[in-house]
Amino acid sequence: MLDKLDSLVRKAGIGSIDFKNKFVAIKIHFGEPGNLSYIRPNYAARIVSIIKELGGKPFLTDANTLYSGRRSDAVDHLRTADENGFNQIVLGCNVIIADGLRGTEFREIPLDLKHCKTAKIGSAIADADIIISLNHFKGHELTGFGGALKNLGMGSASRGGKMEMHSSSKPEMHSEQCVSCGVCVKNCSVHAVRLNQDKKAEINYDICTGCGQCIAMCTYGVAQPVWNESADTANEKIAEYAYAVVTGKPHFHVNFIMDVSPNCDCWNMNDAPIVPSIGIAASFDPVALDKASADMVNAEKALPNTALTDKSYAEGNDKFTCIHSVTDWRGCIEYAEKIGLGSVQYDIEKI
């Protein structure tokens, strides 16, 4: 399989990119501890080897999560990557958490699109010369499926950027958990956070901009996002953020359509795959790649005793919307094409 991956990316044209002395961000998901369906680090190591052979300076990267867990700060995130096999010994390169220790290191990329005027992209990704995405193709509760666009858009955003995609409102304070440390007060750029007479943090919503900095800085879970964004709007914002990541840079994408679990690798477990493993697909066009991957999954016969069985799936229907009925993945794909990120039209060449 490693040799097949090597052959695939070379025939798909990765060698046409000028890697010489360029910083190459390999965007990947390291997997939440307990989840075993994420991309095996052996595959990433082979891509690293190819890029180094072509003269590049590769590193593996992901940005911190908005929700609390084992990937919400750089210390725990690096430990998680190490536990799951993403380390210098296996990979032959370093792992860098894109948005820093607390998720506050980012660059604002100008967009001026329908939803986002700028995109808050993790600094290590924004500052890279070349973007390579390695994507585990699977179901996702917000976007229908997670592939190249989800990995690039949501995955590359700082914690504040993730909040912008997940929520259209401002943070809320769970004051009963506040320890009066004042970190949120010190780090609010518009001075919207203060400690009240009980020494508990509170927000002045008249001046709060909803940037998410207090969420990123608080280690006690006091500042929390309000999860109120519709799936359709979130999908379009993800496409805008993906556009911000790759625009003006060489980029190349690989979808691993294997162990197609019904939910994201952010879960600390993984359910049974909904279809047999199909293979690996690669393209310079992340939109065409995701569309082709979704079509290939839908063309496969569903496996028994999976999340599809629980939903009384009927052959011929869309598998992802069957499992996650509140969202439709087509919205992200179609909007990504509309803003010039790629095309939904594709041809498949089997290697």
Enumerate how many helices there are, as a single number: 14
Strand runs, count? 14
Oligomeric state: single chain
- CATH-defined superfamily of the largest domain: LarA, N-terminal domain
CATH topology (level 3) name of the largest domain = Rossmann fold
CATH architecture of the largest domain: 3-Layer(aba) Sandwich
Helix/strand-derived category reads: alpha/beta
Total domains: 2
The level-1 CATH class of the largest domain: Alpha Beta
Portion in beta strands: 15-25%
Q: What is the radius of gyration computed over CA atoms, rounded to a whole number of angstroms? A: 20 Å
Topology, please?
Layout (H helix, E strand, L loop, with lengths): L1 H10 L11 E5 L13 H13 L3 E6 L11 H10 L4 H4 L3 E3 L8 E5 L7 E5 H4 L3 E7 L1 E3 L3 E3 L1 H9 L2 H8 L5 E2 L9 H4 L6 E3 L5 E3 L9 H5 L5 E2 L6 H16 L4 E7 L21 E5 L2 H14 L7 H4 L8 H5 L6 H9 L13
Helix pairs in contact: 6-10, 10-14
Describe this structure in a few short sentences.
The chain is of the alpha/beta class and 351 residues long. The protein contains 14 helices and 14 strands.
Molecular structure report:
With 351 residues, the chain is of the alpha/beta class. The chain has two domains: 2-165 and 228-338, Rossmann fold (3-Layer(aba) Sandwich), CATH 3.40.50; 170-224, Alpha-Beta Plaits (2-Layer Sandwich). Helices cover 33% and strands 17% of the residues. It has 14 helices and 14 strands. It has helices spanning 2-11, 41-53, 74-83, 88-91, 123-126, 148-156, 159-166, 183-186, 213-217, 231-246, 286-299, 307-310, 319-323, 330-338, and strands spanning 23-27, 57-62, 95-97, 106-110, 118-122, 130-136, 138-140, 144-146, 172-173, 193-195, 201-203, 223-224, 251-257, 279-283. The strands form five sheets. Strands 3-2-1-6-13-14 form a six-stranded mixed beta sheet, sandwiched between helices. The chain has a two-stranded antiparallel sheet with strand order 4-5. A hairpin with a 7-residue loop joins strand 4 (106-110) and strand 5 (118-122). Helix 10 (231-246) packs across helix 14 (330-338). It is globular, with a radius of gyration of 20 Å. The mean pLDDT is 94.
